[in-house]
């Protein structure tokens, strides 16, 4: 048994009281989102009402899930906390590093060789600290979580943006950065701005070619890629009850494409079926007992416009299949309008590849519906006119659909089965193409379709649809084909139509698997060694950052005065650097290389105050010179510094290269917190015009640290090269606990100290 029943029992046991307390304090009926959130407050029962979209709140999630790319730095950091075990059930899933090239078996073999050091590290660190380890080939994080760990009313964070997939089983599941995972695994509070709640009422029942995917493709068209920002989307209504649990998961998964914090459905009979079918009948029985807490209050459903921040209604009776794209998932086309759109925009009508599966759409139901279309290619004598690939979401699904003959059906139409991994969904796809400059079209049942996402080629027009629509298009090889109305010529010259897809929600013979790919951790990991090759250029054990020495910071050099936008991408670029995300020293060579130097308008070219002659060099190189000389440095920035992602590398790299303070006009909040966690000073100009006083040759002091306290400004003194000086106040938002992080050298240092006591 992979899941933790005792933890679930404990969550359910406390729910009733916590929700009742919240309802009293808030003074009105509660949405499902609010119930789950108030039941997961870090400090226990609610003592105040939080304002949706405004209040920052500390939560205590029940679980953590990590994929292999983001898990590396998260676990290297966790090792710093000095804990024997993770504080909450956690898992690692090896899915992102497998490249799709030839087919499942060979691709997996190659990945096992190429990524051996990473896998060995992840397996050993998981074993040591009580973390469940899902081997390469076991499946994609979100599908495996849905099959094994998601439970109604639970709260989970995952280091991947499609973590909300678990909302299909009624869980508040939120995609985060590695630093957040570290907090929760180390037993610290996890902070989130209390989200707004968008209600989507589903009426009617789908039929024919329409599937759950079309609900979210339609919602994406309505809300656009930004419409869900800062909100949790709650689906309800009789239409919701008619959707399979895995269909619900598909909808929640793609909530990431509208920027939503997460999405979820209330507990219902379909979820119960899925829990029973995936050998979790005990959870279903427990959930039945607290079912009233696993849905919104009746008054909310009766009068949704009064309780949701925004309300959308979709009639499933009339919902058409959709195709979204190209280049953005919110360009939503009902199938009846798609052919005309292809012609009007002159998108390449010839379809080159159809790809089904991924974390979004590889349930048993999805595969059976797609296979029912694929079978018609053979039965009706149709030629298949595009390449076709299948990416199963997990070994459980793959084994089951193979047993049931469905993979053979795809093989008969010329389909290639890829490894149970992300593959083409994350650009891990060595696509065979004769000319990468040629404009071309592909269609997938995945979630994202931004330029270059799947095959790295900006000329690829990627469209997103349900697996059955993708399969029909692959047969036709033509994007102007409408499978609902058009005929295809078969090998005998006859005009034939494809029949509507037929799906089976759950396998009649039950799910089966020989080796699901799960490795349980050692009961006592104290004797387990973590495997990191000292010669590795991809992995490096961390050393704790130096604690504060009790004195003001003086004699520091200005490293860069960044001008304009400086996102986490400018601070720690992605792309080829991702290879080094487990090696702090190596990845630090990308530190701030995208930031624009205010003194010369150039990126990655700053003055080295210690070198005469050719004083300008790359930012990381200059930082390393200061560090080697034992001199601290300061980064100065503009507005909203550190916006973008929660990437912890953007805070760790400056800390590693000797930056002691980041002084800006304003911060993106998550980055500000990340800097604090790494033991740095995150400061803002009390008077924004003081930004202009910073000169390229400045030597900088920060004073007032001996009386560092919440709400009290610190002082910056600038010693200019001409002998003059300036000083001004700088603000901070440190609370007592965060000041303790600074003094200890980092939040993890502090936890380690506390654990050692
Ligand atoms: Fe992300 Fe992998 Fe799904 S890349 S979108 S988790 S298939």
Automatic annotation (TrEMBL):
<dbReference type="InterPro" id="IPR036008">
    <property type="entry name" value="Aconitase_4Fe-4S_dom"/>
</dbReference>
<comment type="similarity">
    <text>Belongs to the aconitase/IPM isomerase family.</text>
</comment>
<keyword id="KW-0809">Transit peptide</keyword>
<keyword id="KW-0456">Lyase</keyword>
<dbReference type="InterPro" id="IPR015932">
    <property type="entry name" value="Aconitase_dom2"/>
</dbReference>
<dbReference type="Pfam" id="PF00330">
    <property type="entry name" value="Aconitase"/>
</dbReference>
<feature type="domain" description="Aconitase A/isopropylmalate dehydratase small subunit swivel">
    <location>
        <begin position="556"/>
        <end position="687"/>
    </location>
</feature>
<dbReference type="InterPro" id="IPR001030">
    <property type="entry name" value="Acoase/IPM_deHydtase_lsu_aba"/>
</dbReference>
<comment type="pathway">
    <text>Carbohydrate metabolism; tricarboxylic acid cycle; isocitrate from oxaloacetate: step 2/2.</text>
</comment>
<dbReference type="InterPro" id="IPR006248">
    <property type="entry name" value="Aconitase_mito-like"/>
</dbReference>
<dbReference type="InterPro" id="IPR050926">
    <property type="entry name" value="Aconitase/IPM_isomerase"/>
</dbReference>
<feature type="domain" description="Aconitase/3-isopropylmalate dehydratase large subunit alpha/beta/alpha">
    <location>
        <begin position="34"/>
        <end position="477"/>
    </location>
</feature>
<dbReference type="InterPro" id="IPR000573">
    <property type="entry name" value="AconitaseA/IPMdHydase_ssu_swvl"/>
</dbReference>
<dbReference type="InterPro" id="IPR018136">
    <property type="entry name" value="Aconitase_4Fe-4S_BS"/>
</dbReference>
<dbReference type="InterPro" id="IPR015931">
    <property type="entry name" value="Acnase/IPM_dHydase_lsu_aba_1/3"/>
</dbReference>
<protein>
    <recommendedName>
        <fullName>Aconitate hydratase A</fullName>
        <ecNumber>4.2.1.3</ecNumber>
    </recommendedName>
</protein>
<keyword id="KW-0408">Iron</keyword>
<dbReference type="GO" id="GO:0003994">
    <property type="term" value="F:aconitate hydratase activity"/>
</dbReference>
<dbReference type="InterPro" id="IPR015928">
    <property type="entry name" value="Aconitase/3IPM_dehydase_swvl"/>
</dbReference>
<keyword id="KW-0816">Tricarboxylic acid cycle</keyword>
<keyword id="KW-0479">Metal-binding</keyword>
<dbReference type="Pfam" id="PF00694">
    <property type="entry name" value="Aconitase_C"/>
</dbReference>
<keyword id="KW-0411">Iron-sulfur</keyword>
């Amino acid at each position: 048994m992979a899941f933790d029943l005792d933890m679930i029992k404990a969550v359910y046991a406390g729910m009733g009281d916590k929700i009742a307390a919240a309802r009293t304090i808030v003074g009105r009926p509660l949405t499902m989102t609010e119930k789950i959130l108030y039941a997961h407050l870090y400090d226990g029962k609610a003592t105040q009402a939080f304002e949706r979209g405004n209040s920052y709140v500390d939560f205590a999630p029940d679980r953590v899930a990590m994929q292999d790319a983001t898990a590396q730095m998260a676990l290297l950091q966790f090792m710093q906390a000095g804990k024997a075990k993770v504080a909450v059930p956690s898992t690692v899933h090896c899915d992102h590093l497998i490249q799709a090239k030839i087919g499942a078996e060979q691709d997996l073999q190659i990945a096992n060789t190429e990524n051996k050091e990473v896998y060995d590290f992840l397996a050993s660190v998981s074993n040591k600290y009580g973390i469940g380890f899902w081997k390469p080939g076991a499946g994609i994080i979100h599908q495996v979580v849905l099959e094994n760990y998601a439970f109604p009313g639970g709260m989970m964070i995952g280091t991947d943006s499609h973590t909300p997939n678990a909302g299909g089983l009624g869980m508040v599941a939120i995609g985060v950065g590695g630093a957040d995972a570290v907090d929760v695994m180390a037993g610290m509070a996890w902070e989130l701005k209390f989200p707004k709640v968008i209600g989507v009422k589903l009426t009617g029942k789908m039929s024919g070619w329409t599937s759950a995917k079309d609900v979210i493709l339609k919602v994406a068209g309505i809300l656009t890629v930004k419409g869900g920002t800062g909100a949790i989307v709650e689906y309800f209504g009789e239409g919701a009850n008619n959707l399979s649990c895995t269909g619900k998961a598909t909808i929640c998964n793609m909530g990431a494409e509208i920027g939503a914090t997460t999405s979820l459905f209330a507990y219902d009979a379909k979820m119960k079926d899925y829990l029973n079918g995936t050998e979790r009948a005990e959870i279903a029985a427990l959930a039945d007992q607290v079912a009233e807490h696993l849905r919104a209050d009746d008054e909310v459903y009766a009068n949704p416009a009064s309780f949701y921040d925004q309300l959308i209604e979709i009639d499933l009776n009339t919902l058409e299949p959709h195709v979204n794209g190209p280049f953005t998932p919110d360009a939503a086309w009902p199938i009846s309008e798609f052919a005309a759109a292809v012609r009007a925009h002159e998108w390449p009508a010839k379809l080159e590849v159809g790809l089904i599966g991924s974390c979004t759409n590889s349930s048993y139901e999805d595969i059976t519906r797609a296979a029912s279309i694929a079978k018609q290619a053979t039965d009706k004598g149709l030629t298949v006119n595009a390449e076709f690939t299948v990416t199963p979401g997990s070994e459980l699904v793959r084994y089951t659909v193979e047993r049931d003959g469905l993979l053979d059906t795809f093989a008969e139409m010329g389909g290639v089965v890829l490894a149970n991994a992300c593959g083409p969904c994350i650009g891990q796809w060595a696509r065979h193409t004769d000319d990468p400059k040629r404009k071309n079209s592909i269609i997938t049942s995945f979630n994202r379709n931004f330029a270059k996402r799947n095959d790295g080629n900006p000329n690829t027009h990627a469209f997103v649809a349900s697996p059955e629509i993708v399969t029909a298009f692959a047969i036709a090889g033509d994007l102007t084909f409408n499978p609902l109305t058009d005929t295809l010529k078969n090998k005998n010259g006859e005009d034939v139509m494809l029949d509507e897809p037929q799906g089976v929600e759950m396998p009649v013979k039950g799910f089966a698997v020989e080796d699901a790919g799960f490795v349980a951790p050692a009961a006592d990991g104290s004797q387990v060694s973590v495997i990191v090759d000292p010669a590795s250029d991809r992995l490096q054990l961390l050393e704790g950052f130096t604690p504060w020495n009790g004195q003001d910071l003086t004699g520091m050099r200005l490293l860069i005065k960044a001008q304009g936008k400086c996102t986490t991408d400018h601070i720690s670029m992605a792309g080829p650097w991702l290879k080094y995300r487990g090696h702090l020293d190596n990845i630090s060579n990308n530190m701030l290389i995208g930031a624009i130097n205010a003194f010369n308008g150039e990126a990655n070219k700053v003055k080295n105050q210690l070198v005469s002659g050719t004083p300008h060099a790359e930012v990381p190189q200059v930082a390393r010179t200061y560090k080697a000389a034992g001199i601290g440095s300061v980064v100065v920035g503009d507005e909203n510094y550190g916006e973008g992602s929660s990437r912890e590398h953007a805070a760790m790299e400056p800390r590693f290269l000797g930056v002691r303070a980041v002084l800006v006009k304003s911060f993106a909040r998550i980055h500000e917190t990340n800097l604090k966690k790494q033991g740095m000073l995150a400061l803002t100009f009390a008077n924004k015009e003081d930004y202009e006083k910073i000169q390229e040759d400045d030597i900088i002091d920060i004073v007032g640290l001996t009386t560092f306290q919440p709400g009290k400004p610190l002082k910056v003194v600038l010693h200019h090269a001409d002998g003059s000086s300036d000083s001004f106040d700088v603000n901070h938002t440190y609370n007592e606990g965060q000041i303790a992080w600074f003094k200890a050298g980092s939040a993890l240092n502090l936890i380690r100290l506390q654990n050692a006591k």
